[in-house]
Every structure is written in structure tokens, then in C-alpha cells.
Amino acid sequence: MSSSLRTSSCKFKLEIIFHNIELDLFIFIYIILFISPGRTCEFCSVFVDHEHWQPFEPTRVTAVDETVKYRISVTRGSHECRVTGLRWQSFCNVELEYSLGDWDLYSDLLEKKGFVSCGPLMDLRVISGQLAAVHLPHFICLDTQHRWRDFRMLCAEDTGVSLEDCLISQFHAVQFCHTFIPMAVLVSSGVPVKAHCDILIYLSSTAHQTLHVYLIPGDVKMKESVEKREKGSVKICTTWPDVSLQMKQHYTLSTSCSSQITPQKLKLRYTSKTPNFFKT
Ligand SMILES: [Zn+2]
Asked: Which keywords label this protein (predicted)?
């Protein structure tokens, strides 16, 4: 992966070349900041969602232990949370509270069942009303052959958690609410998958002329972790490749000018704990 950052006409121009080591494949990205391309990969950008989703800004509540919770109170219909990408449908007024959970609690269960997470863990509570369906966001690109049985929904029941079948769409997995509350989307650990990714670039506040370049799956929890870690740094940009990238493979970064880059390669992985980055 090669990258350069230079100025021209008061705009930053950013050229990035990702190099997938395993496939020896180069992916070129060219961005002029302030011009926003489509939010997704070329393949998925042609996808048309015929449902009208009403965007909703949740109320943010911070608990004593600094856990962030979101609250909403809406009328019947199809709604989408602007912050987390969570969608839900209801035939009556509903009041919800939700937060982004930690995957650590379920890592043993997922390993035993042969699944990995591919989206944020939603700790969702229905305060009043009833949900007809919940659509949980995932970052998997469906540009290759996936079978519906490769996916599961982690659901909360009174007796514990279970893995349930679900419908999968381009950016969400759907669960019709009967006796359980959907929490997250899972994909079989044996299936090679590509992810829609985000690139986050920060100018370090502690080291002179040092950039931190993050390549992460497009997940709200991961972005939150990066933002927490880079508190005090200057955010240069958030952008994304126009192609999806193979998970669990290694990528390198290089620059057009002389610079020191560490580490030499990074594995594209999903973790909310310690997202890694290139330092250049
Ligand atoms: Zn895609």
C-alpha cells in the first residue's frame, strides 16, 4: 500500500495504494478532501433499497462508568439511527435504549460455534411498544457468493443467548422479533469474506510530522475506539476504499516521499479493543 499526502490549491490531495500481500493485488485510491464519493464499494453502490427509512438522531446518555447509551422515542414506521446504522420497524410507538457492547463476553461461545462477528454488538432494550423487525448493520460485502446459512444473528433470550437464522441484505441482517432481541450479525469463520472498510488518518500530537493511518472494517464501535485512542490528535480525514477488502489478509503502506513506516504490514481484522495502525 503506498500513500502520499500533499497540498494543492488549498486542498489536500491524498493518494493511497493498498497492497494485498497474499494476492499481490494493488488497489488505488485517489481522494480530494471535501469532495465526498459514495459511501460504499463500486459493487454495492448500485444496490437500491426500496424501503423508506426515516433517519433519526438518538439522544446520547453517558453513564457514570462512561458507557454511552442511545435513547429514542418514535412513532410507528421504519426508522434508522444516524449514529449506529441500526434500523427497526414497528406497527406502534416505541421507546428504545441501546448501546454498543463488548464482544469479549461472547468470544468463547462464537469460537465454539464456528462463527465470527461482522458488525457491532447492540445491547438493545425495548422500553415500551413492540418491534416488528430489527435490521442490524454489518460490514461484509456480498460481492462474492455467500449462502444465507453462512450468516447467523446473535439473539438475547430470557434464558441466555442463541444463534438464529436471519435474512441478509447488502448492509444489514434482518430478524423479525418474536421471542428474542437481535444483538449482532455473525458469519461462519470458515468462509472468506470481504469487508467495507474505513481509512482514518490522524496527525499525531505527540510526534512531529507523524501520521497515524488506520485501515479498519466499517464499524461504528471500531471507529469509536480509534477516536478514543486519538483524543488530542488532529483528524486529517475519514475516507474509504471504493472496493471491499479481504479480511484476515495483510496490507502494506508506502509513501512517495522518504519516510519511516511501522509496522511493515498489518492484518485486516475486526477488533474493538486495539485497532492497529501504520505510523508514518
Ligand atoms: Zn460492497
From this structure: Cytoplasm, Immunity, Innate immunity, Membrane, Transmembrane, Transmembrane helix
